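subagent[fold] <- orchestrator: predict structure for attached chain, return tokens only, no commentary.
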Amino acid sequence: MASVAAGRRPATPRAREMRALVSQWRTSGLALASFARDRGVVPATLSWWRWELRRRAQARRSPAPPAFVGVQVVDAPVAARPLPFEVVLRGRRIVRVPAGFDAAELGRLLGALESARC
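subagent[fold] -> orchestrator:
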């Protein structure tokens, strides 16, 4: 049995016959319908084989479809982000401090708030 390339079927006797007929029609100079009727073939059949043979030729020229590549998904550790926090001052004032704050600026702010008699 003939070996079959990926995605391709071996040519059947009918396909070989129709390939020869389409080739003869192309070199005949006749209209497809006239040529088909002269040979006892339904014109739509010859037209379909012309389309099918062109489609098969294009499929042979097309690059192979990409191969399936398996991927294994693993749980990656999530980078811990510093959490924001709150500073509760005398008098129940609250300062919400975001992650990545500037310590020197926070110190000046807290000093100013603690010294103010609001």
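orchestrator: received. Logging for downstream: The chain is about 45% helix and 5% strand. The CA atoms of residues 11 and 17 lie 10 Å apart.
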